[in-house]
Design goal:
135 residues, alpha+beta, five-stranded antiparallel sheet, 5 strands, elongated, MaoC-like_dom, Acyl dehydratase, UPF0336/Enoyl-CoA_hydratase, HotDog_dom_sf
Length: 135
């Protein structure tokens, strides 16, 4: 299976609003019933303006960018994310991934998620794209 060449500096960005409906779906998928995530009253008591979006749902937006960069023959081999600040359900997030280096068929990417329109960073980290199957 041949792999399209990856080039440092190539980037892809994706923006979406974290919705109540998706929060409910992620609750079902993850089984996480933490008060900050499922109860707006508890979240407000903790100082948030609404429920807090699941960190992995926010970080998961970056996988859309990574998939676009890697194409149909690559997958995420590793990912490490730092969650700098919470995202509130209803806020819009722009995820971005950029290839920073290439080693053979593997690519190391920088991943960021920022609030839109403020640009405040809420997630940053790295990921490695690897061939789905080694040739």
């Amino acid at each position: 299976m041949s792999h399209a060449p990856l080039k440092p500096g190539t980037a892809f960005a994706f923006r979406k609003t974290m919705t109540v409906a998706e929060q409910a779906m992620f609750t079902g998928i993850s089984g996480n019933l933490g008060g900050l995530y499922v109860d707006a009253v508890r979240a407000r008591k903790a100082g948030a303006s609404n429920m807090v979006a699941f960190e992995l749902a926010v970080g998961g937006l970056a996988t859309t960018c990574l998939s676009q960069l890697g194409g149909p023959t690559r997958r995420i081999g590793s990912i490490a994310l730092n969650f700098a600040a919470p995202v509130i359900v209803g806020e819009s997030v722009e995820a971005r991934a950029e290839i920073v280096s290439v080693d053979g068929d593997d690519a190391t990417c920088r991943v960021t998620c920022t609030l839109s329109p403020s640009g405040a960073t809420v997630v940053d980290g790295t990921a490695t794209l690897v061939p789905f199957a080694k040739a």
